[in-house]
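Team,

Forwarding the record for the chain on the shared tracking sheet. I've put the sequence and predicted structure together so nobody has to dig through attachments.
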Amino acid sequence: MKAALSIVTTGVVAVYLLAASSAAAIAASAPYAAPAARADVIRVAVEPQGQVKPQFQRRMVRLATNEEPGTIIIDTNNKYLYLVEGDNRARRYGIGVGRDGFGWSGVVKVGRKAEWPGWTPPPEMRVREAKKGHKLPAYQEGGEDNPLGARAMYLYRNGNDTAFRIHGTNQPWSIGLNMSSGCIRMMNKDVIDLYDRVPVGTKVIVVGPGNKQGEVSYQDRGVDVLRTLFGG
């Protein structure tokens, strides 16, 4: 009786596995049906167009500066963002910055933070893009196809929103380039890492056109090899 029961059980399992395998094969061969999208509205899609250059990967570096630990220094010329950690240490992230005519400088603070933020294109951007034949949405919900990526830190000056953000991107190939309208873009994995390390109120120094950031001293002395290898 036990032998017969074992044979029946084995047969049932075999039939189940065969059915599951056939279903998976059919699903894999079925054509993908993309959701319908409005033809008159441009949404930024996830379109890999190359790899991030090695020098813009996240690194622990030796940074000589008199800025307090926790301060963010953004070097728009060299496309790096530094999170100062003290004792001549910092985390360095590759960034994308404003294209010609959209660069800026100054001292601001993180006024608020958001995970998978929605995007409201500024009116002037919508007008500018409309002249190029691109109709931007009035609002785009957060998600993988959102230009702000996985996280956003909103930059304020004297309690007012500057309209500039440090945010993620679904176009990682743009890191190291001048492409944005003034915001600081990071790879999603990097903006998540930074987001988790800085609170609202963090001081942000943006070194760029006009030198409105004032006097700021910092010197990147290269990768901290020991910390990179062993952590700490």
